[in-house]
Amino acid sequence: MNRIRYMVEKEIQQLRRNPVLLRIMIAAPIMQLILLSYAANYEVKNLNIAVVDGDHTTYSQRLVSKFRYLDNFKMTGYLPGDKQARQALLAGDADLVLVIPPHFERDLEKEGNTSVQLLLNAIDGSKAGIANGYATAIVRDFNSDIIAETKVVTPGVVPQLDIENQYWYNPKLEYKTFMVPGVLFELLLLVGGLVSALNIVREKEIGTMEQLNVTPIRKHEFIIGKSIPFVVIGLVLFTIGLLLGRFLFQVPLVGSVALMYVFAVLFLILCVGLGLLISTLAENQQQALFVSFFLLVLFILLSGLFASTENMPVWAQWLNVINPLKYIIEVGRNVMLKGSTFADVSRQFGALAGMAIGLLLLASWRYRKTV
Amino acid sequence: MDAIIIENISKAYSKIPAVSDVSLSVRPGELFGLIGPDGAGKTTLFKMLVTLLLPDKGRATVAGRDVVKDYKALRQLVGYMPGRFSLYPDLSVEENLSFFATVFGTTIKENYHLIQEIYVQLEPFKNRRAGQLSGGMKQKLALCCALIHKPEVLFLDEPTTGVDAVSRKEFWDMLRKLNERGLTTLVSTPYMDEASRCDRIAFMQTGKILAVDQPVAITSRFKKRLYAVRAADTYQLIHDLREAPFTESCYAFGEFLHLTVKSNEGSEQQIGRFLQEKNHRNIEIHAIQPGIEDTFMALMTQTQPTA
Predict the structure, then answer these.
(1) Hey, are the CB atoms on B129 and A17 less than 8 Å from each other?
(2) DSSP helix/strand/coil, A80
(3) Nearest to A14 among B51, B85, B88 (CB)
(4) Interatomic CA distance for residues A306 and A42, integer angstroms
(5) Mean pLDDT for back-to-back runs of 10 residues, chain A (371 residues)
(6) Which residues of B touch A18 (CB under 8 A)?
(7) CB atoms A214 and B76 under 8 Å
(8) Nearest by CB to A208, which of B51, B86, B129?
């Protein structure tokens, strides 16, 4: 037991000797939390829209005017024809082009229907999707205006369904509310996994690992002694992140704070286990860095931090079965925003605990083999 | 019972043998030297003895404990100083020593008498980070850390490699003093001149032990006649002597060449005549007593005729 204490004391002494690292370990993730939550945003503003008006009538003018004076769109002007429209898209002058065909007004009045064309630059698929959504909504709005006007001519009840949306758990559709609980745990992976792997591989590099191996320090004492400082630093970071999320970003914290901490500790142990496993596989810090970085990016991109996991292909969803970040982000969002209780997230708890135990067992088995 | 007993031990790294079928024993209280060039397998042998590597074949006991079965008990009983400086460079001298004392369940105070003579030289720098010490000071700190838990057997892997001549001498004086207190010490070195400071030595080459004896006795195995030869043109001299009919081997040793001659051939006069015929000037030839290096070279060529 005492030897664990001496290991921890030694780690703390070393950390105090390296104040720059300590500061980076705390400051860099916090910066990331702030930047990611502020900068990454799905709201699309200032879309450049150009119009090809083949009709030049009151109706076509009314439709075009609906796109003006909106935050989301910026009118760049009229284009004479399709060819110029394509050029504008190609040159990047316009994000979307609204093409109004000739006889737009006449067809609407005589036939009761007509069509308009939207050309979208879809290199950024999600941006194009959102732009399309906005534009469609405006056209639909225009459409109902027309119907309302013609209703006077044909009296009687026109059956109509009104859809009223209510957004639960994130009523204002705030992107920050969605991001903060996720980023909070992603940061722990950085400190717990990457930094701990590098720390242990460094002991290998400078030969102190060998020196420790000829002492009576037992394997579990080494592992626990190494883990404690990283779990503590991770929890400090988690606390700062939680406070920032609550008070700077106004993210609701509906569920139990204690439950959040239970999961934070569990997740940190898992991360240190992962770092330990990487350190037994890598011979030097470069190798450890590349392996950790590879896993980190994979975990983050598949985790549902940015894009919903349900829409990923089946193989990616299978990969996600062993993605600890996916589970912990689910927990973070559900507990913080919905107020989920332990019973609601017990499936995630089981998965994370299983992975943590698995990683630690695998790491200590590998550790034995390399000695 | 002997302090270290090695029986037919072998270790290979992915089929390349590093130590092959080595047997050796070191008596309690002995200062035993393992002499051999780089790559002879000294470090691999050491790592097996201090429980860092598992032998492929054979067995060994240190302080009466089997290096495989009793490795836990053994770790408390051996002190190991690896060839490369392996302490925490970002911790101070005192912190390093204190850390290694505590993990062995002791304190600096308790065993201070063991390291006192060495540590007094380090004490002025005790708050300095270990990484900022000079080479000689690093070695002293590493030795202190290997001694602080009162080991029964001390393993020093090339402790003087990369250390200046004065520090080397000091280091060997320290080892002798420790040895006088009864500490069994196994020390490896690539330097032949350090062999004479050991009680007994073993020559090691390509994973095998060539000979084990006292430094004085080992030179008596050198049966052939040996001459030191010098002339104005050393390069031409070594070339001519290696071609000479009476020569068995010829190596450069500082300003002289050491020439071994075949039995019944190569008297001083015969060599002199041969060199005069080859137009050498300022010729000097003395018969000399073989040193440890001569013996090692001879043993090496016996086992490897092509070398």
Answers:
(1) yes
(2) coil
(3) B88
(4) 10
(5) 90 89 87 82 78 90 85 86 89 90 88 87 83 86 81 57 78 81 90 89 91 89 90 94 91 93 96 92 91 92 85 87 94 93 94 95 78 48
(6) 90
(7) no
(8) B86
- Beta bridge mates, B62: B4, B65
Q: How far apart are CA A368 and CA A112, in angstroms?
A: 79
pLDDT digits (tens, 9 = 90+) for B251-283: 888 888 888 888 777 788 888 888 888 888 888
Report the distance separating Cα B300 and Cα B307, nearest Å. 8
Residue type, B1: M
pLDDT at B305 over 50: no
Q: Where are the domains of chain B?
A: 4-219, 223-289
Domains B4-219 and B223-289 share a fold: no
Beta-carbon separation of A18 and B90 below 8 A: yes
As a whole number of angstroms, the distance between CA B232 and CA A55 comes to: 109
Q: Give the class (CATH, top level) of B223-289.
A: alpha beta
Contact B72 A10 (CB under 8 A): no
pLDDT band at B146 (very low <50, low <70, confident <90, very high): very high
* Facing residue for B89 by CB, picked from A206, A210, A216: A206
Q: Is B56 or A146 the better-scoring residue by pLDDT? A: B56
* DSSP conformational letter for B192: G
CATH architecture of A47-150: 3-Layer(aba) Sandwich (3.40)
Residues of B whose CB is below 8 A from A212: 103
pLDDT number for residue A28: 87
B148 token code pair: 């602080």
CB contact under 8 A, B90 and A17: yes
Q: Which of A13, A17, A210 sits opposite B52 (nearest CB)?
A: A210
- Find where tokens 């979307």 sit: A96
**pLDDT tier for residue B105 given thresholds of 50, 70 and 90:** very high
- CATH 3.40.1710.10 positions along chain A are 47-150
Which tokens is A218 given? Answer: 């037992």
Q: How far is B88 from chain A (nearest CA, A)?
A: 7
Instruction: Report yes or no: A346 and A256 within 8 Å, Cβ to Cβ.
Output: no
Count of residues making up chain B: 307
At A147, is the secondary structure helix, strand, or coil? helix
Contact between A207 and B86 (Cβ < 8 Å): yes
pLDDT at B22 exceeding the cut of 90: yes
Give the closest-approach CA distance of B191 to chain A in angstroms.
Answer: 24
CA distance A104 to A78: 16
Confidence grade of residue B306 (pLDDT, cut at 50, 70, 90): very low
Distance from A219 to chain B by nearest Cα, in Å?
11
pLDDT confidence of residue B307: 35
Residues of B with CB under 8 A from a CB of A: 50-52, 72, 75-76, 78, 80, 82, 84-91, 95, 99-100, 102-105, 129, 145
- What is the pLDDT, as a whole number, of residue A43? 67
Q: Which of B81, B85, B102 to substitute to test the interface with A, most A CBs within 10 Å?
A: B102
- Residue B119 is predicted with a pLDDT of 92
Cα–Cα dist B25/B304, whole Å = 25
Q: What is the mean pLDDT of residues B103-110?
A: 93
Q: What is the pLDDT of residues A158-212, one digit of tens each?
A: 566 767 778 888 877 777 888 889 989 998 998 888 888 999 999 999 999 989 9
CATH topology assigned to domain B4-219: Rossmann fold (3.40.50)
Q: Do A208 and B88 touch (CB under 8 A)?
A: yes
Residue B50's pLDDT is 94
Nearest CA in chain B to A3: B103
CB contact under 8 A, A212 and B103: yes
